[in-house]
């Protein structure tokens, strides 16, 4: 196994990406020399402010580089990969590099099919400023409080997302582990839900003797995955039998309040920004870990107020007397359903959803699930697919989802081949009192920001 040494020179391929950028900045803070490149320079200003000078495109790798770090999306025919190979420079995936770091730090891993970024951001906002821990955090999405996805801390704790895609999380060494949920995502990797559960079981096997395992006791797949773990494990949920529970839950104006209990006894009242049952679970997981760290209930309540939200996770980007515009990252049927259900709890008027499917494979596999996810919406506008890492597949489009809808859902849904036509219909049909949501992991939110600019200029 490759070993990190002081003053090494590291090169990150795709340095501006959500996963790579905070890791590059953290590496510089650890004392390494950092270089890198990306096809997009959108986030280069963040890197430059941290003292890193990235290059746009594929400029090649310097001959004195000690290690090249790349993501799962980078292929062997990448020019920089070829350059590094010719120079005999060691090359490892991002997950392997994270493994090298987590091996020597108190790593708090947040895992699960959904909610990793939100829960990581909760813990980051809470523990980065908590003097006794002052955790570093590498969040998979930009947070509202930092306008970044990197939190510099001085303590030993490092908060990280443990991504199940490509079995990446099995390269990590958790000190403490949160398992939020297990859902049938990334079936192209695991084959079926049983394969995914086995991977989570394997992840729990990497815990240390004194580690804390925080798990969702209401999620049957999670319960099965952790059933054989013999170390310290702590359940949370809404149902009887969970050690930590939320009681008397209230949602109001996109915020939440509930009584946080342990073994049936009240610990404290929690009030925080964000609403929806899925975010109750996310905050429960965070609060459970804090409680297991020995943090007093009153302090937990104060710390929860520090959470300001995650960009593209039910982010309110515009609000006036006539319209509310919200950007949401949901790109799996259960995420879409959960987010829209939450928004419906907070809004009684019409809800228009602009949805961009993410990946041809996911759209094909989950078309029936997506078809049943928009019940809470009044108008659904489905755009072209965001392919990300995948090649064009002419057999899959938003029409797959439409054809799997029942007649009621079809009547309120329109499928588009481009953003321009979708935006024209949105402008034609929207009216005061509407909540308008951009949903998906792609570029659909650009239309929302375009609308924000137009509304802001009126």
Chart the SSEs and their pairings.
Blueprint: E1 9-13, H1 20-29, E2 33-38, H2 44-49, E3 55-56, E4 67-70, H3 79-86, E5 91-93, H4 94-102, E6 106-111, H5 116-127, E7 136-138, E8 150-151, E9 157-162, E10 176-179, H6 187-190, H7 193-204, E11 212-216, H8 220-226, E12 232-237, E13 244-252, E14 255-262, E15 265-273, H9 277-292, H10 297-304, E16 315-319, E17 324-328, H11 333-346, E18 351-355, H12 360-371, E19 379-382, H13 398-403, H14 407-411, E20 413-415, H15 419-429, E21 435-439, H16 445-456
Parallel strand pairs: 1-2, 1-4, 2-3, 4-5, 6-9, 6-10, 7-9, 10-11, 11-12, 12-13, 17-21, 18-19, 18-21, 19-20
Antiparallel strand pairs: 7-8, 13-14, 14-15, 16-17
Please count the beta strands (DSSP E, at least 2 residues each). 21
Distance between the termini: 60 Å
CATH superfamily of the largest domain: Mur-like, catalytic domain
Mean pLDDT equals 91
Q: What is the subunit arrangement here?
A: single chain
The strand line-up of the biggest sheet is 8-7-9-6-10-11-12-13-14-15
CATH T-level fold name of the largest domain: UDP-N-acetylmuramoyl-L-alanine:D-glutamate ligase
**How many domains make up the coordinates?**
3
The rough form would be described as globular
Q: Biggest sheet, open or closed, and with what strands and sense?
A: 10 strands, mixed
Helicity level = 25-40%
Secondary-structure class: alpha/beta
């Amino acid at each position: 196994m490759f070993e990190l040494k002081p003053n090494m020179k590291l090169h990150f391929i795709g340095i501006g990406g959500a996963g790579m950028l905070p890791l590059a900045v953290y590496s510089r803070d650890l004392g390494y020399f950092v270089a890198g490149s990306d096809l997009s320079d959108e986030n280069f200003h963040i890197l430059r402010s941290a003292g890193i000078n990235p290059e746009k495109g594929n400029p090649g790798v310097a001959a004195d580089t000690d290690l090249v770090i790349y993501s799962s999306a980078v292929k062997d025919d990448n020019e920089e990969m070829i350059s590094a190979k010719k120079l005999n420079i060691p090359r490892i995936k991002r997950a392997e590099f994270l493994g090298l770091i987590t091996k020597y730090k108190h790593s708090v891993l947040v895992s699960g099919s959904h909610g990793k970024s939100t829960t990581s951001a909760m813990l980051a906002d809470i523990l980065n400023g908590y003097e006794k821990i002052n955790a570093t955090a590498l969040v998979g999405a930009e947070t509202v409080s930092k306008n970044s996805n990197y939190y510099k801390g001085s303590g030993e704790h490092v908060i990280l997302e443990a991504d199940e895609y490509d079995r990446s999380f099995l390269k990590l060494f958790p000190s403490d582990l949160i398992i939020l949920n297990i859902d049938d995502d990334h079936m192209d990797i695991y084959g079926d839900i049983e394969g995914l559960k086995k991977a989570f079981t394997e992840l729990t096997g990497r815990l240390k003797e004194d580690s804390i395992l925080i798990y969702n006791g209401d999620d049957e797949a999670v319960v099965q995955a952790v059933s054989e773990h013999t170390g310290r494990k702590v359940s949370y949920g809404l149902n009887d039998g969970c050690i930590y529970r939320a009681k008397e839950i209230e949602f109001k104006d996109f915020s939440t309040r509930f009584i946080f209990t342990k073994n049936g006894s009240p610990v404290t009242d929690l009030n925080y920004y964000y609403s929806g049952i899925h975010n109750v679970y996310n905050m429960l997981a965070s609060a459970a870990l804090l409680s297991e760290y020995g943090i007093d209930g009153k302090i937990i309540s104060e710390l929860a107020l520090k959470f300001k939200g995650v960009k593209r996770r039910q982010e309110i980007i515009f609000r006036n007397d006539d319209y509310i515009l919200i950007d949401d990252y949901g790109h799996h049927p259960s995420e879409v359903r959960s987010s829209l259900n939450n928004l419906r709890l907070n809004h009684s008027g019409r809800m228009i959803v602009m949805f961009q499917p993410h990946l041809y494979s996911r759209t094909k596999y989950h078309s029936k699930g997506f078809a049943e996810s928009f019940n809470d919406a009044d108008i659904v506008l489905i755009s072209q697919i965001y392919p990300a890492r995948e090649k064009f597949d002419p057999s899959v489009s938003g029409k797959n989802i439409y054809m799997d809808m029942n007649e009621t859902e079809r009547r309120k849904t329109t499928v588009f081949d481009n953003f321009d036509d979708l935006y024209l219909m949105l402008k034609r049909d929207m009216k005061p009192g509407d909540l308008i949501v951009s949903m998906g992991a792609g570029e659909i939110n650009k239309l929302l920001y375009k609308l924000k600019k137009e509304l802001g200029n009126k």
